Amino acid sequence: MFGISPLGWVHTISSLPAIPLAIYMLARYGRIVPRSKPGLVYFISMLIGSATVFLIAHQSASFVIGAATIVLLLAGYGIGRISTFGRVGVGKYLETIALSLTAFLLMLPTVTEILRRVPDGHPLVTELNSPILLGAQAILFVMLIVGLTAQIIHLRRQGRLAAFASPVEISAE
Fold it and tell me: Which of 3, 65, 73, 167 sits at a 20 to 30 Å CA gap from 45?
């Protein structure tokens, strides 16, 4: 079905949980939160999905996206463990940017593959330079820029509120 190999199905099915988890965390927390249960499942799903792309990819862009996703994923989950970033106050910003980029890098090939495979036998897009595909990718890019901007503003506001909060209020978080 849809011209997907068995290994391709493993790649696809393992990647799928990351999409609703990213949406959930973005809606609930305003960002992808690595040190949470949904964040752990997101990490595992993204890692399996981005690692298996090397076994099924046919285009060099797929290898670049897979490698960039792995690097950003490891950076996003590792930044919080480096105390230097926490002391400087940029850790959450770098973590948020890196993990938002992983969600973008997941959605870019996802949308491309859906448009190139659905409906089965008569896909909406047959060429990589199709206006429909390029428009969908442009929308994803705009969503990334708007989303990152909103996340940065949200983090800045949280930081300002924490500066004015009493120690009792901070410990309740």
Answer: 3
